[in-house]
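Why does this matter for the project? Reviewers at the last site visit asked to see concrete outputs rather than summary tables. In response, this paragraph embeds two records directly. Each consists of the residue sequence and, immediately after it, the corresponding structure tokens. Nothing has been edited or filtered.
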Amino acid sequence: MNPSTTSAAEIPTGLLAFRPRISHIAYYVSDIERSLAFYSGVLGLQEQLRLPLGKGVHEVVLGYPDGKGAGLILMWNTAKTTPYQLGDGYSRFVVNVSDVEAALGYLAEKGVQVVQNATQVGSMKYAMVKDPDGYVVELLQLTRS
């Protein structure tokens, strides 16, 4: 955007003026090693950073090598003795893939629970699986209709 050729109507306002982009999604898991076995060992995310946040809370930042900064933060609290409640507001973590059916087959071979088989909707094909804590992970393929 060249300021000398941009009209006032085209200049972003509000938060858009600061060029926002989604960086990471973060949620708590009950067993970090089990979750890392799933997200790194099965889904292929790579650990980028591990941080102790204090008072028993820790986080590990995961991302794909070509993810351009977007990723997942898994948090856990070593002082927590009761299970986390997923609540009814969480929907899913979405991962784009080039072939939903092949990816779903790979995950099923790894023992991952499939909750939605590959489904075509318009120019998208998707499937859903669950991680070890019960969080839903959607596999999304953009297709040509």
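We now turn to the second protein, recorded in exactly the same manner.
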Amino acid sequence: MQASSRPTSEQLQAFAEGFNASAMLRHFGIELSFNEAQDRVRAKVVVRHEHVGGLGSDQAVNGGILAALFDLVLGCTPALIDPARRSATMQLSMSFLSPAIGQEIVAEAWVDRSGRSTVFASAHILNGEGEVCARAQGVVKFANIPWSNGRSPGAG
């Protein structure tokens, strides 16, 4: 991908705003964004009581929440190439290294390689101390249809 073909910050902002307006992200308290270099998708979660239960504890975030975060950030990596096209996660592989503990956790994903219709991406989740506590790899496929508004996942 050439630098000139990268999405603009405005396009990525609109993409993130569209996802952040979704009922699912609002319900789970997830905020989607892109890093300053615009080469990573980020999802930040302020940990709530409903998120914990991993290892049977009241501190570790449940693995199902971590899996959902990986699906979200990996599934959004094609936006780093073309935010006007829909995409879906086809394959997801996760490794949990240590408990995800802290008041806030962050998932980050980036493109490893891409073709015309498929993106290979990697991700990690950082605990409240900023340490990697889980890793994932995924394969994401571009859909052949644009978002309903033609530019981002937002309605209308």
